[in-house]
Amino acid sequence: MLPALPDGDERELESSEEGGGAGEERRPERHGSTYHGLYGYRRSAQGAAGGDGGAGAHTPSTEDFSLTLLDTNLPAEAETELRGFIAKRLTKGALFEGMGSVASVGLSIPESKVGCYYCRFQQENLLEMATLESDANAPEYVVCFLGGSEKGLELFRLELDKYIQSLKINLDLEQKNLESCVSPYLRSWFEDAICPIQRVVQLFQDKLASLLHAALSYTPVEVKNADERTEKDISRFLAAASLQGLVQEGTMTSLCIAMTEEQHKSLVIDCSAAQPQLHNAGSNRFCEDWMQAFVNGAEGGNPFLFRQILENFKLKAIQDINNLKRFIRQAEMNHYALFKCYLFLKNCGSGDILLKIVKVEHAEMPEARNVVTVLEEFMRETAVA
After folding, report:
1. Residue 1 has pLDDT above 80, yes or no
2. How far is CA 193 from the centre of its chain?
3. What is the spatial distance between Cα 180 and Cα 178, in angstroms, rounded to a whole number?
4. How do strand 101-106 and strand 221-224 relate by DSSP bridges?
5. This model's pTM is above 0.90
């Protein structure tokens, strides 16, 4: 049985993000209906003194700041509506430097209602100067990315935050390079921040299971003969599919060290041909099942749906790890529970990875370590048989 999205998630994402509910390929319309807006933002001395609002604090009026349009691909009427939306957020103190938010906005565009990621930021060097000089009038900016739905963009909020970080560090808005550098960067936000997972799924297809397996097991991956975008896409997919931040940091570090020391386990991806060739590829039934879920989702060409599947993939992996830990605690005192551990590992489809993870986590716990050792022997005997 293939893994599925929680009830209602797939339906909502497909309808919201113009995915392929009926198997239709609608990529041109979806890619053509993404927008951006960049504004210069300046606070008056009065507005700066008033603070960003909060309980009992002064709420600045719209006269306390000004918004200057620098770049957009929105129609004039829709841009005015977007500016009003951002002004209201600024008035409420709801924009924090470098931390994006996502909301749904209604604009005079064909889609009528779209998801909107918005973020206030300063250039890196100007941010440092403002901190040193306490310059309340240092130039700031507000960027907006619009497309899909609020729920869809929320899945990519961290990627969009990183996209803004790159804008802060690498682009000089004060050197009149708006048209040559900034505008192309803003126009490509959807392709660069939202589509990498989709492109990897389409490139690897049924070989995606080995990539999922490498991400879960922290197997080192070496990419050869790939163009820069493909190499970055693969790296981003591996980062998004890993359990980083979901398992203990010490466990993750130990796994990375252990897998790096086993050089023969490194996954080598050769992109010299139209289809990538994989060497030393690993897989298991768990990853094969989820690979099929990705391939099935590819019919609609919906990048938001791919990300939702990836999040559910990680959620199921974490659930299996927690279940195995619970069985191991029981097995320390109960031989029948040890047999339940063995059955769970045998049937879950990812016993090879789960054993590595719990082995690292229980390395300093003698009773649990003994249980893991016995389980490893059981699994080896089963594999030989």
Report:
1. no
2. 9
3. 6
4. unpaired
5. no
